[in-house]
Amino acid sequence: MPTSFFLPIIFVLLLVIFSLLIWMKSDRRYHTSKSVSLAYDAWTNDRLLETLWGEHVHLGHYGSPPRKCNFQQAKVDFVHELVRWSGLNQLPPGSRVIDVGCGIGGSSRILARDYGFEVIGISISTAQISRAMQLTDQGFKCDFQVMDALDLKFSNASFDAVWSVEVGPHILDKQRYADELLRVLRPGGILALADWNLRDQSDGQMNFLERIVIRQLLDQWAHPEFSSIAGFSANLQNSHFNQASIQTADWTSATLPSWTDSILEGLRRPLAISALGPEAIFKGLREIPTILLMRWAFSTGLMQFGVFRSRN
Ligand SMILES: C[S@@+](CC[C@H](N)C(=O)[O-])C[C@H]1O[C@@H](n2cnc3c(N)ncnc32)[C@H](O)[C@@H]1O
Q: Which ligand 1 atom sits closest to the C-alpha of 125?
């Protein structure tokens, strides 16, 4: 084979390796909760996430078995599925609900509008809270405050229900997170929680490749640690504020299509992305390796989508 045949291949290979090295280095590692608030402030202010993911910063529910469905509709469906599964729909209108780590308020607004609850959404990100307020119609009983999930400024037993979706991976002290959620929940109240979980190590230690992947999934999106479904369930069950039995389920297969859809969404609406400016295109491309790794991890069982509820 002539050298001229190999040169372009070597060039492309070097380019790929170089880009991968840059991607692995240019992370958004977790140092303190400030890393999380800064990351979400940036993700909110550039509007890229909102353009692609809509007002819900969580995965969609595509049914069991998963069916073809619009990405943003699947996110709305997710909220209603979690309401049903957790039993939140058994609470009367006017019940007080806290949405811990509320993003820009997508779930909070559905809980207020469709179920008539009085909702308070809290997030560590100032930009998310101002955006949540902008997006919320004055007619809803739906309020938002900047607050740390580990230091909720509410007295014990002040809510009929506690809702928290995909917040756990950003929190290092999982026991304190579980304690705070259950402290503000009234006895007999309802807990509805969803989380990205790591396979429990009793089901198999991570191999070398899995450890590299998990390191990236932690470092790229300001995650200090993933807990397992069993591990976080034990945090809830053993909390001294817990008075109920904690039940869990695995929604990995129902939520899995979200990862491919989050990439396809950019291809389906290139004009919406380019309208945000050239920087948005690069920012969007930068997320693709992490999204693909997430998909791989969830599809191989390395990661699991856990949901948690309390039962009296
Ligand atoms: C993946 S987003 C989910 C947002 C929202 N639950 C939703 O479903 O659209 C994670 C959220 O957790 C919030 N968060 C992370 N750590 C937090 C903390 N210590 N206190 C309060 N909010 C936190 C982030 O600001 C963000 O709103």
A: 25
Structural domains in the chain, sorted by start: 30-311 (3.40.50.150)
For ligand 1, the distance from its centroid to the CA atom of residue 292, given in whole angstroms, is 22
Contact between residue 288 and residue 169 where contact means Cβ atoms under 8 Å apart: no
> What secondary structure letter does DSSP report for 58?
S
Q: What are phi and psi of 61, to 5 degrees?
A: -110, 120
Cβ-contact 92, 69 below 8 angstroms: no
Whole-number Å distance, alpha carbon 3 to ligand 1 midpoint, is 53
Give the number of the atom of ligand 1 that is nearest the alpha carbon of residue 33. 19
Q: Tokens 């007295």 label which residue?
A: 155
Centre of ligand 1 to C-alpha 212, Å, is: 25
Separation of alpha carbons 20 and 18, rounded Å: 5
pLDDT attached to residue 24:
61
* 294 or 2, which is more confident: 294
What type of residue is 77? D
pTM of full prediction above 0.85: yes
Q: What is the mean pLDDT of the chain?
A: 93
Residue 27, pLDDT above cutoff 70: no
Are 66 and 256 in contact by the 8 Å Cβ rule? The answer is yes
Spell out the alpha helix ranges (H) of 116-171: 126-135
C-alpha 256/C-alpha 91 separation (Å) is 30
Q: Which of 102, 103, 96, 101 is nearest to 119 (CA)?
A: 96
Per residue in 103-125, pLDDT tens? 999 999 999 999 999 999 999 99
Q: Which of 61, 111, 123 to mutate to test the pocket of ligand 1 (most atoms within 8 A of CB)?
A: 123
Distance 272 CA to ligand 1 centre (A): 25
Q: Using an 8 Å Cβ cutoff, are 168 and 232 in contact?
A: yes
Whole-angstrom distance, CA of residue 152 vs CA of residue 176: 11
In 10 A of CB 58, how many CB atoms? 21
Q: What is the pLDDT of residue 192?
A: 98
